[in-house]
Design brief:
Blueprint (H helix, E strand, L loop, with lengths): L11 H23 L11 E3 L5 E3 L2 E3 H28 L5 H19 L6 E3 H21 L8 H27 L22 H17 L2 H28 L18
Helix pairs in contact: 1-7, 2-3, 2-4, 3-4, 3-5, 3-6, 5-6, 6-7
Length: about 260
Amino acid sequence: MLVPTVAVDTHPVVLAYNAFQVVGIAGSYFSESKNPMPYSKFAVSSKKNDDGTSTTKKMVPSRMGMLIIYVPATIVALAVQWFLLPLIKDSTPTVAGWLVFAHFVKRDLEVLCLHKYSGSTELDAARMIAFVYALTALMICFVSTPTTELASREVYSGVSLFVVGSLGNLYHHYLLAKLRSDSVRKYVAPKGGLFQFVAAPHYLFELIAWLGIAVASHQLTGYLNLLSMTMYLSARSQNQNNWNKNKFSEKEWPASRKNMVPFVY
């Protein structure tokens, strides 16, 4: 049985970032539950103000918005792993750092080659998420325990969890992409895989991948990131499930279907 172990980097910058993560964990679920991040089907081009007026949001095509979100973190992870760690810390790149890089490369490739988009993304939201992801990549790459100091079970467990999570996430993204033809971009009730049980199995597998990164990181920063992602994706899966229930008939989408974890949540 895997028993995760956690080390704590006591550098003041890292501790300050950990405090920032704790605040994010506390607020991410409630923030996302109340106001879903405006991308994908939750994108809105205008916002109603208290005085009754509307503010128009600057939007970009969804594919461009997703690249804005993921590419900076990809570049940051590669730069830290390949250049900055050997230069600044005189140390070798870490397993967790390469897993972070692989995660965002996968996301970039999915945006370019797999996903089929029809909507738009709020530009400011894309920039904000991009900053958070880039900062996450930077910190995990920098603070993760060197591979030579990890127990072999932590390396193998972390990599195995990441591979399982990434493949499961990719498979369910593939199922979603199959639902939409190149000419028709309407929403269809997802089916196949764990979509028979939950609204967002791709989120569940993404969290398994982040768990693998946390185990390989062997640092508090990685586990706090996992908790933050869990809160955020839990709320977003709930929003997704509610959207499906309103969009599709009971036959297409039963009211009993869970959000993210089969039979549980």
